[in-house]
């Protein structure tokens, strides 16, 4: 039996010693190349779990192992994209991505760094916008820069915290399609937080459902039965789509708060 790429065991987080934990007994595995989404109501600890995976926050209990090594702090092996783009406003699109590339590949010369950065800028559909500053970009373009930056360091795992939540529906759909293509090309391992059921169905191989906090836990893990070739425009025609969607919505509306 092979060891999973990512293994999370007995994770819990308590901010106040005497208070109940926000979540507890969270355990799951993610295989290399797998796209996993986690869904749950606000306050159940989803972002805290992602921050622990990223090494940005410490769990009260439990362990996270990636490639058989315990996660104990931030690392360029894990790329993170948050809902806010967090671009450096004084740098251009190319400068923002190149800064990340240089931090990952410190022995590369400027020409190689820029060529690598341009490849990922083009991959998210921003070729031609390399010399624009963040103030000249729309919200969707800024998020694309953040995604390009995360992919450019070639992380072993990508962590996405509601990266499209602030975008309009059309822009969100376009970037979802871009993300699907990039993940298919790179076999990227992804852990993503979303509140959007349709987004989870489109992107994820598996969907983890969290009960409400405090003492939240992963109540159920659903394997996506739709074909890997699904598209945003066509997945609604798959016979498994509406039963799966109804199951997820029913959990969020009726069952998530009854499991504590």
If you had to describe this structure to a student in words, what would you say it looks like?
With 260 residues, the chain is of the alpha/beta class. The chain is 34% helix and 21% strand. It has 7 helices and 10 strands. It has helices at 46-54, 93-104, 110-123, 139-152, 169-186, 197-203, 241-255, and strands at 6-13, 23-30, 35-39, 61-66, 69-70, 78-81, 157-161, 189-193, 206-210, 218-223. The strands form 2 sheets. It has a 6-stranded mixed sheet with strand order 6-7-8-3-9-10, with helices on both faces. A 4-stranded antiparallel sheet has the order 2-1-4-5, with helices on one face. Helix 2 crosses helix 3 and helix 3 (110-123) crosses helix 4 (139-152). The radius of gyration is 19 Å and the shape is globular. The mean pLDDT is 92.
Essential attributes:
260 residues, 34% helix, four-stranded antiparallel sheet, alpha/beta, six-stranded mixed sheet, 7 helices
Write the H/E string, N to C.
EEEHEEEHHHEHEHEEH
Q: Work out the radius of gyration.
A: 19 Å
- β-sheet strand percentage: 15-25%
Globally, the shape reads: globular
- How many alpha or pi helices? 7
- For the secondary structure, the number of strands is 10
Average pLDDT reading: 92
Helix residue percentage: 25-40%
Low-confidence stretches: none
Largest sheet, in brief, is:
6 strands, mixed
The end-to-end distance, rounded to whole angstroms, is 33 Å
The strands making up the biggest β-sheet line up spatially as 6-7-8-3-9-10
What is the SS-derived class?
A: alpha/beta
